[in-house]
Amino acid sequence: MADVIQDLDIGDVARVRALMKPAEMTVNAATPFSFRSIVPQGWSVVQMSQTPPTAEKLTPVAVLQSPTDPKASLQIQAVRLEHEISATDWLIHYARIQKWLSEKIEDFGGKAARGPMLLSVNGVNLAAFVAAYIQRDLLILYQAICGADDAQRYAGAFNLMVRSFEPTEAPTQAFVEPFAFQVLDRKVRFLAPASWPAQITASGQNHRHAMDFVRTDKAGAVVGICRAKLILPGGVASYDEVFRGVYRELQEAGLGFVSEMANVDGGVGLRAEPGRIVAYSMKTAVGLEVEARILVAENKGAYFVLRMTGPAATSDFYEWAINSRCFELMSKSIEWA
Asked: Which of 127, 113, 95, 94 is nearest to 163 (CA)?
């Protein structure tokens, strides 16, 4: 039997008010996280979890079920994040694990993402309008699901539900994990994650100051290396010389150039322009795929270089996504004295 919210025209205000209602829910966590969303009037809560979310797996928060369509439901889950990652990359990673077919995913500043998905459960083909939201260290997964054949008929109501989701409180922290400012020669500072142990590798030699940050997984394997370097005036003659030096360092580290990739912010080419990020596809001597991201910025004759190396997206998407988000946040935090 069809659900009354099928074929809902969100421009029909009277019908929307008759069939939909605002609802507020709270995720049971050490620091409660409340959110509101518009949901169908006649849908009932069939499951409400009292289990606090953990980092190990998604925890059910609530399930709302259509009273007339057994395939139609709203499922809300939560998981604790341990590292920075964009909501878009998390959603892509989750869809791949679940073997869902995802179409275009919209990104909203790294903290929210949404898009349509196609999935199969026990041989039943379903469609879902899915969104992921990050608040503090919590990720909320919001899934409005129906039979694949009814996707267009539920589109109006499901889009309204997904787009109406919002936290009931303003964000109290900008990052998932603690970040702290690091300073090189009192001339430039930048934010770095506290979970990446830092080591000073150069302190004034040859007009250079440098610091390395290393991220390891739970097994102790290195999954990300970031080097921050300040080259004082007189240390190099030009931006091109700085960039050639960075590329030479990568080769000396045993990384072979495979191909140049599009600049992260949209440009292309072998060299990044000052203040822009470029990515290289590279390989180790044993053939492991690696991505190197490089940012070079200049101020009054001094150059700041930020370089990240780690697994390529094609070899380990999740670790790549963590490194990518961290590099983005570090790059945006650079401040010259």
From this structure: 113
